[in-house]
Amino acid sequence: MEEYKLKKPEIRECLQLIKPYEPGKPVEEVERELDLKNVIKMASNENPLGPSPLAARAMRDNVDKMHIYPDGNNYYLKEKLAGKVGVDSNQLIFGNGSDELLAMLCLAYVSPGEEAVMPVPSFSEYEFAMRMQGGIPKTVPLRGENFIYDLDAMLEVIGEKTKLIFICNPNNPTGSVVDRKNMERFIERLPDNIVLILDQAYIEYSEDPEQISGLNYIKQGYPVVALRTFSKIYGLAGLRIGYGIAPAEIIADLNRVREPFNVNAMAQKAAVAALDDDEQVVRSRLLVAGARFQIKEGLRKMGLKPIPDQANFCFIDVKTDSRQVFQALLRKGVIVRTGDIFGQPTHIRLTYGTEEQNERFLTALGEVLAEQA
Q: Class assignment of domain 53-277?
């Protein structure tokens, strides 16, 4: 039989600008490819403590109900979270990870040729979601070796076509934050008819007393959306569940473009249970605080200057090709993220782990840098 030559429509022009997302390497893949055992993954900002025991129990208790469609309204989760956060239930929306919520925001508000302002380096999904709609990302570099937000520069690039502004706070991959005074000044200077998206996936890890939640602006009706997730401090990354807090009018817009049954039943059950386990949240915060000190002391001893962070990861300038360091660390059974995907070819991003994992990373990095010297 003659081989059929595929004939298909041309991919949309705006999609030709999209670079496929490059996730952290799975442990199983590294062990398989390099014939290693006991590989540790410190690449994807996951919680090394795992999910709350309450969430794990809820998943086990509900596994035989997974033939039933989930509650499309997320009723029980919405009511519990509304009480915990202190907002009305109509000010909440849930997604298949906060990534889906980013896509919803662009679907709801961005037409081809319209713009969104965003920092670089930052989370790549902002650009991805904009490109999917034929939107134009307007990027503003973070300043200096500590990657500080330049909010004045962000205000300057706002134009008539600007619909959205993305601020990742704490920022991924740098861990840097915008303090309360500067954020409030920024919000109050924003023009009308622009939605400000505060991506707060790591806010629970911040020790900065000046960290702004944005909830006061949302309650006052400002066009502000706070995005948060159960993937990080709640340890439910494998279930994909995030949420947005916004004025009810914005939530209503987003519900117009939300897919039916977009949050699976297991994720809903686990998230409801996780919200009852404040002790797990405290344990996770304490682990990160200890790990932050351990890692940064170790880096200083190597002559590396750690970037101040308020997240469960740090961004490290290793002063050499991060791809080479990444590959060498892989051979020692340690997975990190390279900085070149963020436009920073001499940096790596490291997720804080347990004390043992952190020590293993520090030992491996010291050996790698010595070998490459």
A: alpha beta
